[in-house]
Amino acid sequence: MKTKYLQFTETDLRKAGDLIRNGELVAFPTETVYGLGANALDIEAVKRTYAAKGRPVDNPLIVHIHDKSQIYDIASEVSPDAQKVIERVMPAPITVVLPKRDVISGVITAGLPTVAIRMPLSEEARRFLRAASVPVTAPSANLSGRPSPTTWQRVGEDMDGRIAAILCGQPCEVGIESTVLDLSREQPVVLRPGAVSAQFLGELLGKEVNVLTDPTSKVNSPGVRYKHYAPSVPMVLELDDDFDKLRDFYDEKVKEGYNPVLWVRNPLRYGDRNVAAMGVDDKAVAANLFETLRKLEKKYDFIIASFCWRKNSPYDGPAAQGVLDRLLRACGRNVI
């Protein structure tokens, strides 16, 4: 199909909303990454999302809303903890998992009795969702397994010709997908870390919020069961900012015939080797992570990334755990 590139004008927003209600797919910006929107009440449209992305059908989707009142149309039960997060945190880069109503098909939830719900902080996202006037499922707008897109141009690289339209908005400020918080049980659990930290949520709720450490053991969170975010070239991750280790590994790859790159916090330390800046703090790393991965894979044939998350270090911030999660998945947990 021919993909339309729409702008954030009232006319184009109406077109985007009409496309959603007619069962078509529309990519749109959020504060985290670009999402691939479909009418959550149209199961055939939702199925086309899986097909367009090449996404496994047992990987649940997040339902996006523009108004908090919609949560009560989608969730069958909203606990006091959930009400506190909804009222005090949302809209934000957070997704809450709650027991679902029958209006939400098992096609969306991979057959689970829970649904993941998100109200984006991005005003552009909420303008689009208001124009759609229905709840919208929206995984990241990329081919499954690829780095998520944070600009409309990157959406076009993967989705041009596969979907009806792309809403061309601003680059995504957060840069990694939302925190997924399971509030369907008594003990809150972060199923996918993001920019809203478990520590913050624990302080808000006045109880411990655990973080899922073995994603293969759960399937009720979007974006945690399969390898994600992978560049098209080999990638490894180093976790100690060990200059000698990184330098020697780079030099070995050169001897093997690769054209590698060191993706590090202090690139000037590495002389005339190929380098890229990781970012000054965890927030900066998150904002540019996926965009940098897509740039590096086009220029080099081996990525050597370093992310050292220590207490009171520059990377010890709210997004640190989310960044580490994405880097580990991008390299297939190949840590040197």
List keywords for this structure.
336 residues, Rossmann fold, four-stranded parallel sheet, eleven-stranded mixed sheet, single chain, alpha/beta
Dominant shape: globular
Number of strands: 15
Calculate the terminal CA-CA distance, rounded to whole Å: 43 Å
Uncertain parts? 215-219
Q: What pattern of helices and strands is seen along the backbone? A: EHEEHEHHEHEHEHEEEHEEHEEHEH
**What is the structural class?**
alpha/beta
Query: From the coordinates shown, what is the CATH architecture of the largest domain?
Result: Alpha-Beta Complex
**CATH fold-level topology of the largest domain:** DHBP synthase
Computed Rg: 20 Å
Summed up, the helix count is: 11
Report on this model:
This protein has 336 residues and is α/β, with parallel strands linked by helices. It has two domains: 4-217, DHBP synthase (Alpha-Beta Complex), CATH 3.90.870; 235-330, Threonylcarbamoyl-AMP synthase, C-terminal domain (Rossmann fold), CATH 3.40.50.11030. The chain is built from eleven helices and 15 strands. It has helices at 10-21, 43-53, 71-74, 80-88, 106-109, 123-132, 152-159, 198-205, 243-255, 282-299, 320-330, and strands at 4-6, 26-28, 35-39, 62-64, 94-99, 114-118, 136-137, 165-167, 179-182, 189-192, 210-211, 235-238, 260-264, 275-277, 302-306. The strands form two sheets. It has an eleven-stranded mixed beta sheet with strand order 1-8-2-3-7-4-6-5-9-10-11, sandwiched between helices. The chain has a four-stranded parallel beta sheet with strand order 12-15-13-14, sandwiched between helices. A hairpin with a 6-residue loop joins strand 9 (179-182) and strand 10. Helix 10 (282-299) packs parallel to helix 11. The protein is globular, with a radius of gyration of 20 Å.
